[in-house]
Amino acid sequence: EAKKIKNTFVFFENSLKDKYLRQSLIEQELRKAITNDEIYMMYQPQFDSNLNFHGVEALVRWENSKLGFVTPDEFIKIAENSGIMASLGNHIISKSLKDIKNIQDSLKKQFHLSINISMKQFIEKEFFNDLLHQIKKVKFKKEYITLEVTENVFIEDIEFIVNLLNRLKKQNLKISLDDFGTGYSSLSLLKKVPIDELKIDKSFIDDIINDVNSLNMAKSIITIGKQLNMSILAEGIETKEQKDLLDTLNCDLYQGYYYSKPLRKEQLKEFLKTTSS
Ligand code: C2E
Ligand code: CA
Ligand code: CA
Ligand code: CA
């Protein structure tokens, strides 16, 4: 029995150690990733209910020689906890604006670009100025840019956040609340913040056909958002049944593998050549 416990302990210790080592290696490699040009963006298309193309969400990718592909869920957290997020975030904005502006110009077609903004990046003092500077530099049309933030930004100084959101709005930028319904949020807060779009989290969409609680959550989110004049985007749509059901609830926009997986910029360009409107 004692031996068993000891083994369990050793196993536990090793796995913690492995976890720590992996995180340190990720942090160490991530610090060089931008200069080594290991970071690139993929773009997932978004559509309205009539299958008109609306725009894309930019999703970061990192391929490293020692680590292979590391998922953003893993490395974004590490970037946030090691002070790398502000520079990584700036790099993400820069790449996304350039890639998409390039495609817009060459296809002579305007469409929306959503960029995920980490809370750590959003609350940086220089965020607003850096962003506007970058937009100006590439001459991107501001009304086509959406910033996706998660509810956890509201944990921060709320006065500061509301003020920042208002300044961004004055610049004609749009704000989307990502993963809505999964994090910290208060409904009374929602009416005080200038939000343009709610993204229904994939976890509700996954079970929407079979689980009445998920369906009711989606219904509530749509009702609340509509009352506050927000547009509603459902993410993680994988089947026609999910899309059809959400259509009956008056959802505005859709994104998911049913429409398209995230695409490299060259793939997106080809995709758009064959997509109407
Ligand atoms: P998210 O912002 O909620 O992004 C949606 C995630 O769902 C993406 O995963 C996307 O590839 C995936 N997805 C989209 N449609 C489907 C579908 O139909 N089925 C399934 N199974 N998955 C789908 P990804 O790219 O691995 O990103 C994971 C998370 O990492 C993102 O969640 C976001 O929180 C973070 N992230 C990704 N790119 C960035 C970025 O550029 N900046 C920041 N700050 N965070 C990012
Ligand atoms: Ca997102
Ligand atoms: Ca999301
Ligand atoms: Ca998510």
UniProtKB/TrEMBL annotation:
Keyword Transmembrane appears in the UniProt entry: yes
An example molecular function term from Gene Ontology annotations: cyclic-guanylate-specific phosphodiesterase activity
Domain called EAL: residue spans: 23-276
Domain of life: Bacteria
Keywords tagged on the record: Membrane, Transmembrane, Transmembrane helix
Protein name, per record: GGDEF-domain containing protein
Organism: Malaciobacter halophilus
